[in-house]
Amino acid sequence: MTNLSFSTPKLCDRGGDLSKQWYVYFYYTDSNGVRRQFRYSEGINSLKTKRERRAEANALAEAITVHLQKGWSPVTNTVENVDNSQPKTVSAAFDEIFEIKKAYLTGESIRTYKNQIDLFKKWLARNSLDHLYTQNFTADHMRKYCDWMLRDRKYCGKTYNGHLGMLRTYFSEMVERKYMAASPVAGFKFVRQETGKNTTYSEADERKFGKIGKTDPGFYLATRFVRYCFLRRTELAKLQVKHINWQSKTIVIPSGNAKSRVQDSVTIPGTLERMIEKAGFLELDPETYLFGKHFEPSLKRLNRVDDFSDMQRDINSRLGIGKGRTFYSWKHTGVVELYNLTKDPYTVMRQCRHTDIKMTMIYLRSLGCGVNEQVREW
Prior knowledge:
Blueprint: E1 5-6, E2 10-12, E3 23-29, E4 35-40, H1 50-69, E5 72-73, E6 78-79, H2 90-101, H3 107-126, H4 139-151, H5 157-176, H6 203-209, H7 212-215, H8 217-229, H9 233-237, E7 244-245, E8 250-253, E9 264-267, H10 270-279, H11 306-319, H12 329-342, H13 345-352, H14 357-366, H15 373-376
Antiparallel strand pairs: 1-3, 2-3, 3-4, 5-6, 7-8, 8-9
Helix pairs in contact: 2-3, 2-5, 8-12, 12-13, 13-14
């Protein structure tokens, strides 16, 4: 089996100059690791308009891509030996890789992947492609699916990009397993996505919500852990008494509970510290989950993390809290308050457990933070 590697064929249109020779080019790495550029023009330059040339060039690029994916070598002008001894359908390959990944994914990631894969497989079935073997699945098929997500499903940028990211990962796995010569999604770009939709609770919202501390104390306390420690729903559902390090005043998030699969910790602010003491958590069995059924301490874990979001939605509706506020809005509210208190993005980065300050800065800007006082004095 020869390991084939090539870039996506692209058009060089010489800046739209019809007096110059246009061509489709790509890079190809042969079995010896030598990388070369190849150019093909066929009948492109016999056409007299830009529109005609581009249409012909796109058709040529697609044809070249199909040949390359089937194992064609531009070096020898022959089809290399692509391993098709155990052909798999695209659907079967996705199922197989998903089962392998489940071993190290979190529950929420498993649900996300499963929903995305199910959607893709339904599209394959509707278009009579569910029996198509991996080596015959092309970039043209992939483009039609991506267009369908944007045009018919009307996915926003964030949802589309998340789905595209999953496809990239899975097809890369198929290439590594030699189910196909190259990924049909290679070269596909993410679309621009909107930022700034993260909403926070106002002071008036907070006063209204404060009543919940008496009627639903367990859920109220759960929102405080999100507000002050920026925990995710899955981390909150798996939070046990033993994860509270009272000596260092930190909460440990084990690798098995964290989205990043890396153990980390966050600081317990004084406000939350007093709430923890009042709730009597430290007197419970170390194996007790802080928020089990009905958001009360329990030795049995809360399995459905959507309960947090559903409860927040019901309470907001009942109290007349502004639209757009969600369970995660408590995190956004806390981040804004912490930044305004410290004016230090690195402190926010640490409490958010971000790995890159760029991620934190983008997040802060989406929340309207980061006003430069020197600019204000200008």
